[in-house]
Structure formats: C-alpha cells, structure tokens
Amino acid sequence: MDDEVVKCITQSEAIKYLGVDFTDEIVFDQSKVLKMLQSETLASTTMLKPGQKIKILNEYIWPKIIYPLQCAPLAKLTKSFIEKVNEIRSIVKEILTIPADTPNCMLYSPRNFKGLGIPNAEWEAQLQTINVHLLLLNTRNPYIIRNSDLNSEIESCLKKLNVVNEGEMLTTQKIRK
Predict the structure, then answer these.
(1) Do 101 and 66 contact (CB within 8 A), yes or no?
(2) 135 to each of 122, 126, 132, how far by Cα in Å?
(3) pTM greater than the 0.90 cutoff
(4) Which of 5-14, 25-34, 119-128, 151-160 is predicted with the least confidence, judged by mean pLDDT?
(5) Segments making up each domain of the chain, as ranges
C-alpha cells in the first residue's frame, strides 16, 4: 500500500519468534512434534494412576501439539502426520485399559457429555486455522486483508469440518459444540 516496502528476512536467514521457526516461510518440523507424542513411557509407567496420565496428556502434551497446529499452514500438515497424531487414541485406550474397539467418539466427546475431551488432530488443525483467521480479520489490518483471502480459507475449513455457516457470527467455541 502506498508503495511501502516491507523488509523481509533472506532465504538463508532463520529466526525464531514466539516459539515458531521462520526461514522465508514458517518451518514446521513434523518429526519434532511427533517426538513429543512418543508417550509409551506414559502409558507403561506404574507410578501414575490412569486419571493422572490423562491429565498429563490433556494439560501438558496436547497444548504442546496444538501450538504448532495453530502456527503451521494447513498445507504443511500432511495426512500421514495427522494420522500419527491421532494415534494418541490407542495410547489413551491403553492407559484406561479399555478395549481397542471402543468407539473413538467416546474419546473425542466433551466431558459434559461423559466423554474424555481428547482432541482430534484433524478437527483441531481446522479449528485452530479458523480461530487464527478470525482473530486476524478482527484486527482490521489493511495489509493482512489485502494480502490474503481469510474468509475463503475459513469457508474451506468449515467445509472440511462439515459445518454449515448460516450467516451467524461463528466462533471456534460454537463450531466445537
């Protein structure tokens, strides 16, 4: 706008900002995130009760995974990566010593519906993208609005979640419900 030039980092330069690595684009290290999920020791330890293990998953491990899901562009989240993250279901089933054929919806259901509230990585990636885009739209920054079509990206995420927007103001909290 107004012939302003925004100084950028060079292709060979790398910086870290708010815990996210950048080169000429966001660096998303899938192996680093998957390494955080290597929770076999959590499942097999006898030092903790099952409820304590689930609490560790929900309050420590998942937030460390959700932050990269917020920051990474959806194009960088491969289907195989999402499937590996969603394998946490089997860890949860092992921790709780419930049968492997227990429906996953019981794991994903919110606690107020007697579920465990374990996030689904596929849904969470879409929800986090919607949330970030809604926040960016609310800033009303002309540079952001001019350089990206946030509304179409939000609609794309809603379509992947099978959520129909009937003209109401959506929030990720409403979408989750």
Answers:
(1) no
(2) 21, 14, 5
(3) no
(4) 25-34
(5) 29-119, 120-177
Query: Tell me: the pLDDT tens digits for 159-173?
Result: 988 888 777 777 888
- Does residue 78 contact residue 63 with C-beta atoms inside 8 Å? no
Which position has the token pair 């925004």? 6
What residue spans of the chain are helical by DSSP H? Answer: 30-37, 40-44, 50-56, 62-71, 79-86, 88-96, 104-108, 121-139, 142-147, 150-160, 172-176
Q: Measure Cα distances from 113 to 50, 56, 107 in Å.
A: 20, 21, 11
Structure tokens at 167: 């003209």
Could you give the angle at the alpha carbon of 124 between the alpha carbons of 121 and 129, nearest 5°?
130
Non-local CB neighbours of 88 within 8 Å, separated by 6+ positions: 37, 39, 57, 61, 118
